[in-house]
Amino acid sequence: MHPEQAETDGLSRQPHPATVVGHREQQVSIPRLGRETDTACPGMTSRSTTAPQDAPHLDRGLGLLQATATNIVAMVGIGPFLTIPYMIGTMGGPHLIYAWLAGAFLALCDGLVYAQLGAALPGSAGQYLYLREAFKPFGLGRYMGFMFIFMTVLVAPLSVAGGAVGFANYLQFAWSSMTPTQHHLVAAAVCLFEQRRQRAAAR
Questions:
Q1: How far is residue 94's CA from residue 82's CA, in Å, rounded to a whole number?
Q2: Which of 3, 37, 81, 161 stands the most exposed, by the fewest C-beta atoms within 10 Å?
């Protein structure tokens, strides 16, 4: 056999370096999460490319001030500003402060519960996640999560409408000649403005 042919046949029968188990210099890695890793070969350096920095991602920029404001809006809302005058008139004095103190204690307990849930079940979706995981052992996790989302879809527009009515009510102190029709138009304009703002923020 010709020497060159024998050498060629010997090379063809050698296993590929990537198939040799325990080879000192050959490592085969599986690319994951947008990274591309080449097989390290003798005399060659491995290269890796990462995903672009401008890829869509969630900005974890919710600090203490933003989180506090979000909880105040969720727990207080516009309701007290609409009902306080009627409650003071019904009770005939400033005794409403006792109800506020009791409500503040209940709100503190509620906040501590949510803080514990957030630490035990880290993740997005908040109450949906808590209800789903709490009722999952009973086979009602997805059902309770759906009921919460359904309730939110019904209540959230009413909350925006209540805020718009409250804005129009307080505007009457500055616009004393406001008619009922103008009051309704102002509330409707606030609702439309909020709807456009939410759509712009979602894009």
A1: 16
A2: 3
